[in-house]
## 1
Amino acid sequence: MENSLMFIDGAWVEPDSGEYFPVLNPATGELAGSVPNGGYAEAVRAIDAAHLAFADWSAHTAEERAEYLMTWHRLIMQNLDDLAATLTMEQGKPLAEAKGEIGYGAKFIEWYAEEAKRVYGSTIPASARNKRVVVLRQPVGVVAAITPWNFPAAMVTRKIAPALAAGCTVILKPAEQTPLTSIKLYQLLEQAGLPKGVANLVTGDAVLIGKAFMEDSRVRKITFTGSTEVGKLLMKQAADTMKNISLELGGHAPFLVFDDADVESAVKGVIASKFRNAGQTCICANRILVQEGAADRFIALFKKEASALKVGNGLEEGTVIGPLIDKAGYEKVSLHVQDALAKGAHLVCGGEGFHQSDEEDAGYFYQPTVLSGVTADMRIMQEETFGPVAPVVTFKTEEEGIRMANDSVYGLAAYVFTESLSRAIRVGEKLEFGIVGINDGAPSTAQAPFGGFKESGLGREGGKEGIESFLETKFMSIGI
Ligand code: ADP
C-alpha cells in the first residue's frame, strides 16, 4: 500500500520528517493507509501558498468559482462508491450510511456553487446629497479548517465549499483517524482543475499544525468541528490575531416524546437519531425524555426495534451499527452504562460490548442499549456518550420536560415528538437549541443553518448563514 501525501501549492508532497502514521480500520484493526506526519513547517508552507493564491482566486467571478465547484461535485458523484468504501474502511460506519454521507456532503458543494452567485451587497440612502453609501461583501481571506473523524467527508465539504464559493483560499487539517477520505476528495479537487494554492491539505500533528494556523496573522478565519474542549482552546488562541471563528462543538441532544405523540413515528425518529454512526454524531439523541403516559408503549416498541439492529463490520451486508472509533470511545460508553446501572437504572436491552481484533485500539463494538429509570445524577445525563446507548427518563408536565431538556451547557440539537401543532410550536420556541427536529429525527440538510447555542459553538454551517461566515462587510462612503 502506497503512502498518501499532503497537498500544498498544487503539488502532492512528503512530510519534512519523512515519517508517516498509520490509519487503522476501526472494525478490524487492519491498516487502511499511511499518512504524512506533517507539522508546523508544512502548515506554514500551506499558509504561504493559500496567501499567495488569494488575490487571483478572490478576483475570479462568482460564476467561474461556481464552475469549479460544480465540476468537483460531478466528480464526487461519479466516484461515490469508491469514496464511500474508503470512508467505511477508515471510519467504520455502514457502507449505506457512508454512501449517504458522500451524497449529503456533495450537496453542500452544489448548493454553495449556486449560492456563490448570490453574495449581494447593498446601497443605502445617504444623508447628504453629494454622497453615496455602498456596502460590499468580500471574502475574509485565508481560511484554516479543522475537521473531526465522525463525518470524514461532509465536515470537509461543509467548510471548504462555502469558503471557496465566497472567494477564500483554504488549508484543511482532517482528523488523524480519518484523513483518507479527505485526501481522495482533494484528488478530485485537483482533477477539477482548481488553481494551485487555492485549497491545501496538511496532515499530522494537530497541536503543531494548529499552532501554525493560530499564530499566523495571514489566517483570517478558523472553522472547526470537534470537541468543546479544543474549541475553547482555539477560541482563546484566535484572540491574539483577532481571527474570525466558527465552532461546531459537542451536543447532548434531548429527545422529547409527549403523551400525544405518534409513538411509532417517535420510535422511528429515535432510532434514526440515536444509532446513526453508532451514536457518534454531535446531534445524536442523548437524553430520551418521555412523558409518563407514553412511556410504557414507547419503551416496549423502542426495545423491540433497537434489539433488532445488526452490529458488525460496516462493509458487511445488513450492518446498521458499526464499530466505535477506538478503545477510548468504547471505554466511555461502557463507563456510562456501568455508572447508570450502579446508580439504579434498569437495563431494557443491550448493555454489552465486545472486542474483536488483535489491535489494541480497534475492533470495539457495543450493542444497541436502552436504559430506563435514568436519573439526573448519572454521568450519561451530563456528558455526551458518543455511543449506541439511549437513556430514557420520564417527566410529568410540558414545563418539566422543557426544563429538563434545557438543563445542559450544550445547545446543539433537540427533538420534539407530538401530534399537537400548538405544543410543537410552544415547545420548539422555548428550547435553547440551534436545531429543533419536530417529528423529525434527521434534520440536517445543506440549505439550512446548522449550529449550536451555549457551549455547542458559534456560527452556522449550511444555508445562507454558512457563506456569510466567510465574508467581510465593507462600507464604502463615496463623495460625488
Ligand atoms: P474528538 O474528541 O472528537 O477527536 P477533537 O476536538 O480532539 O475531537 O478533534 C477534532 C479535530 O481537532 C481533529 O482534527 C484534531 O486533530 C484537532 N485538534 C485536536 N487538538 C487540537 C489542537 N490543540 N489544535 C488544533 N487542532 C486540534
## 2
Amino acid sequence: MVEELKNHINGEWVSSSTDQYVDVINPATTKMIGKTPMSTTKEVEEAIQTAKESFWEWRSTPPVERARYLFKLQNLIEENYDRLSEAVVEENGKNIKSARAEVQRALENVEVAAGIPSLVQGYNSEDIARGIDEKAIKQPMGVFTCIVPFNFPAMIPFWFVPYAIATGNTYIIKPSEKVPYTAQILMELIEEAGIPEGVVNLVHGGKEVSTTLLESDDIEGVSFVGSTPVAKKVYTKAAMEGKRAQCQGGACNFITVMPDANLEAAKSNIFSSFFACAGQRCLAGQNLVAVGDETYDQLKEMVVEQVPNIKVGYGLDEGVEMGPLITAKAKESILSRIDEAIDQGAKVLVDGRDIEVEGYEDGHFIGPVVLTGDIHDLDIVHEEIFGPVMNLIKVDTFEEARDLINSNNYGNAANIYTQSGKWARKFAYEVEGGNIGINIGVPAPVPHFPFSGMKDSFFGDLHAQGRDVIDFYTEKKIVIERYL
Ligand code: NAD
C-alpha cells in the first residue's frame, strides 16, 4: 500500500499541497498504513471546476454509451475483487467474508446502474388537449458529491457514484479519512474503465473538505452517509445552500423474537447481525427483544453458550468472524458506555471487554458483550453504540416490543423472528423502521430497491439506490408540445 494518498482531479493523480494529514491505521495490527491529506480549499475548488467543465460533454453522451463504461467497470471490479476486499480488511478491520460481501454489493450497484437506458425513461401523454402532447423527461443536473463513512469503504460510495454518472452527472467522491484506500482503488478502476477525465473526481479530507463542497454554488446536491449529528448538519447546510440532499444517519436497531420463532434456524443469523463487523453496521442488531419468559430463557441459554465462541481476530486470518473497532477512541468510548450501563444496573451475560487477541495485542478489539436485566430505559439500549454489544431485553407481549422500538429516535432497521404471518404483517405495518427484516438478520436492500431509513436515521426524501436514486440525480422537465 502507498504511503501518502493522492487526489484524482481531471484525470490526474495529484498530491495535495496540505501539511495536514490523518493517519490511516490498520485497526487490528495498529500499523500505520498511510496518510490521508486534508486537501486544501483550492484543491476542492479545482475538483468542482473540472467536474463542472466536464458536465456538458458527459450529459450529451447517450445513456447507452454511458452504460458501456459501467460494463467495463463491472469487469474491472470482478478482476480486482480480492485486491479490493483485502484493502477493506486492512483499513477497516472487518473479516474477509464481510469485505467480499461488501465488494459484491458495490459490484451489483454498477450492474443495476448499467440498466440506465430504461431506468431513466420518462413518460408521456398524447392529446392532453386537442393536438397537444405532454411528456416528462429526466435530465441530469450537474455536479454531485458524496460524503461517506468508514464502515463500508467499497459499498457505500457505490450506492451513489454509478447512478450519478449513469444519469449524466459529474461527480466528486469524498471518502472517509479513516479508510481512503478502497476508494483510491475504485477510482483507479473508474479511470481504467475509460470514463472520461473530470467525470469522476476524488478528493480526500474531513469536515473542511465537506464544508467547501457544501458551500459551492456549483454543487447541485449531496449524498451523505454517517452519524446522525453530522447527517443533520449536512442536511441543514445543504438546504440553506439550495442543494438537494439525501442524508443517512445513525441507527439503533431492535430484533424481536416471538415465542413461535424457529431459534435453531435463526441463531447464526441473529448472532451475525450483532457481532459481524464488530457491530459497526448501520443495520446491525443492538437490542434483542424476547417476547415472553420462555423465549427469553431460551435466548439467554443460547447466547451464553454460543456467543463466547465467536472467533475474534484479524480479518485476513482464517476463521475469524469478528474484527476490531475502527479506532482506539471508538473502543474506549464503547467500553465506557458499557461500564456506565453496568453502573446503572445492567447484568453482564457475556463479557468480552478484556479480550486479548494473540499476535494483535494492541489491536482495537472488544470481544462480544451481552447485557441484560431491567435495562429497557438505559442509554445503552436507546443510543447508537456501534460496537459488539447485545442488549437482551424481556417483554411480555408483541405490543410491548413494538412500543419499545417505536419509542426510539432512530428508524433504520427493525427485525422480527416468527413463523406467524399475522405477527410478521403486524410488525411490518406498525413498526417505525425503514428496513424491515422478517426472519432476516440484516435487512439490507438490494440495489434495485431503495436503502430506506426514517426518523433520526434519514434526512431527506429520496433514498440511496433503487428508483429513488435515479430521481435524486435527475431533474424532471415537462415538455408540452403542439405543432401548428
Ligand atoms: P461520521 O459522521 O463521523 O463521518 C461521516 C463522513 O462525514 C466522513 O466522510 C467525515 O469526514 C465527514 N464529516 C465528519 N464531520 C463532518 C462535518 N461536521 N461536516 C461535514 N462532514 C463531516 O461517521 P463515521 O463514524 O464515519 O460512520 C459511522 C456512522 O455512520 C454511524 O453512525 C453509522 O450508523 C452511520 N452509517 C449509517 C448508514 C445508513 O445507511 N444509515 C450506513 C453506514 C453508516
